[in-house]
Amino acid sequence: MKNKPIYIIVGIVVLLAAVLLFAGGNRRKRSVEQSTDMSWSSFSSKDKKAGGAYAAFKLLPQLFAYHSVQVVTKSFARTYSKEKELAHAGNVYILVSDNMFTTEKDIDAMLQYVAPGNELFIAVNNPDPVLAQQLKFAVTESSSFQQQHVGWVQRYTDVSIPVDTSFSYNGMVAGNYFSAIDSTTTTVLGTNYKNKPNFIRVAYSRGYIYLLLNPYTFTNYFLLHQQNVSALETQLSYLKDYADNVYWDDFYSHQRSAQSGDFSEWQVLMRYPTMRWALWLSILLLLLYVVFESKRRQRIIPDKPVLNNTSLEFVDAIGQLYYQRHDNYNLAHKMIVHLLEYIRSRYYMDTNVLNEEFITTLSKKSAVAESDIRLLLQMISHIQLEQHVSDEYLQEFYKRIQLFYLNTK
C-alpha cells in the first residue's frame, strides 16, 4: 500500500491532461464549425460544418412528401443484396461525395437497382470510370476552388421545361464538366460557372440515373446562403415526390481511397469523433490499468514466531511427574535418556562411548564449553553407577541439563 500515493498522483495527472485535451478539442471544434473553409468538405449527413450536408439531409423529408429517409452506411452492393425493397420500383437513392470509389460489384448493383424503374441521384466531383464507361459519358477534370467572385456557381437549364435558374455563394466552386454524353439516352439539366454541362439525366431501362458534378450544392454553406435552398428543390424536383423509399448514402462520402475489401462496422463507428474519442480513451484506461495493476498484490505475511525449545518443556513435564513421586533415580535416568536422544538427533553423534573425543566433538557442534560437557557426563556416570540420587544431586543435575539446552546452538 506504500505505492498508493504514486497511483493517486498519476491518476490526477492523467485526469488533468484529459480535461485540458478535451477543452482544447472543444475550442478547435468550435473554430472549425464556424469556419467557411470548404477545402475538406465531408458531405456527411451528420456534419454541421460548412462542408457538411446536415441541412440538405434534414430538408429531404419535406421534398418527398414528408417521407422518412433511410441512411445507408455500407457499400451499394452489400445494401442491394440485403435490402429487398431495392429490387422493386418506386425507390430513390441519393449519393453525395467528393470522389466515388466503387467496385464493379457496386456498379452492377446500381444498374440492377435502376433497371426496374428506380432513380439514382449521384452528386460527386469525380464519378467512377466504370460507371462512365457503362453510361457512355466522359468527364473533363478542372480544378475546384474556393469562391473567387466568379458570379453564379450552378445553373439549371432544361429545354423540355421552363427552368433557367442560377445560384451563387462565396464557397467552393466545382470545375469538372461532361465533355461527352450519349445524346440518345442523356439529357442536360444544368451547367457550371463556365456554362459547361455538369448536371445530366441518363435513362437506363425503365429508370433514371442523375449525375451532378457539383456536390457543393448539398453543403450547409451553400444552402443557407440567401435563397439557395431553391437549388436543392430544383435538382431534386426530377425525382419521384411519392417515392416508396428514400435512401441517403453515408458510405461513399467517407471513402478516401479505393475499397480494398468489405466495409466493416468498425469503420462506421470510427467516422464519428465522439466514438473515436471513446475508443482511444478506453484503450488508454486499459493500458493504465495494466501498468499500475499488473503488479501482484498480497497481504503482508506476518513474522513466523520463534519455536520454543520443546526439549525444555519435555524435561519440565517429566521432572514434575517424577519429582512428585520422589523417584529420583528413575527421574534422573529419564533425563539422561532424553539428553542422549537429543544429542543423537540434533548433532548426529554416537552416544555409546562418552569419551574425550565425544566431549571435544560435542563442544564444537553445540558451542558449549568442554568443561561444562565433561562435568555433565561425569554426573551421568555417577548416577548410573550409584543407582541412588539424593534430592540435592538431582537438582544440580537438572540445572546442568537446563544450562546445556539453553546454551546449545
UniProtKB/TrEMBL annotation:
The keyword Transmembrane applies. The chain crosses the membrane at residues 6-25, 207-224, 274-292. Residues 46-230 form the DUF4350 domain. Keywords: Membrane, Transmembrane, Transmembrane helix. InterPro entries: DUF4350. This is Uncharacterized protein DUF4350. It comes from Chitinophaga polysaccharea.
